[in-house]
Amino acid sequence: MTSQSNLPTIQRFPTADVAIAVHDLHVRYPDSPPVLQGLELEIREGERVGTIGPNGAGKTTLFLSLCGVIEPNRGEMALWGQPVKVGAFRPELGLVFQNPSDQLFCATVWDDVAFGAQNMGLSAVEVEQRVLRALEVTGVTELAQRPPHHLSGGQKRMVAIAGIIAMQPRVVIYDEPSANLDLRARRRLIDFCSSRRRRW
């Protein structure tokens, strides 16, 4: 892939209320056809946007690119006017993985939810407050001392969301959040995601 230093320098992106801006984004994996070609995208603060497409369409590739995990071959990306850099930690953008088991790796739910906030350099008191709030708003407080691998798929999904919420990002990206959930868990997730008021 093209080195990040060879990507065009962002000359200007709207900054007032534009959370995510993408211009001419190209991503291609080695020995594979292009995944993203010339993608243009602008999402403003407060908007709710759904991305629809079949497996392999590039949804996850876009999300990982925005999080600085994947290095694009060409194009420009910015979060609130600041260029996305590969490997840079941007806590204002949170990604809930398609498979929550890929996101949960600590001994207890509490530890998993606290992990991101702890790595932001917050005090122990602030971390505890954020974890308690995240567990509360996702409805999984009673699971705090349970091992994540003992949870159901729906419970794991909400714990993974709680871990992102504890970092209090300005934008949350959900990668196929309803995948492999039963009807009850899917309904609860839809109700949570469709709330029009930020609850953290």
Looking at this protein, list some descriptive labels.
200 residues; 2 domains; disordered N terminus; alpha+beta; Rossmann fold; 19% strand; 4-stranded antiparallel sheet
Detailed description of the structure:
The strands form two sheets. A four-stranded antiparallel sheet has the order 2-1-3-4, with helices on one face. Strands 5-6 form a two-stranded parallel ribbon. It is built from five helices and six strands. Strand 1 (18-28) and strand 2 (34-44) form a beta hairpin. With 200 residues, the protein is of the alpha+beta class.
Quick synopsis:
By secondary structure, the protein is an alpha+beta fold.
Topology, element by element:
Elements: E1 18-28, E2 34-44, H1 59-66, E3 74-79, E4 82-83, E5 93-96, H2 109-118, H3 124-138, H4 153-165, E6 171-174, H5 183-193
Parallel strand pairs: 5-6
Antiparallel strand pairs: 1-2, 1-3, 3-4
Helix pairs in contact: 2-3, 2-4, 3-4
Order of helices and strands: EEHEEEHHHEH
Name the shape in a single word. Answer: globular
Cα(first) to Cα(last) distance is 38 Å
The residue-averaged pLDDT reads: 88
Strand order in space, largest sheet: 2-1-3-4
- Number of E strands: 6
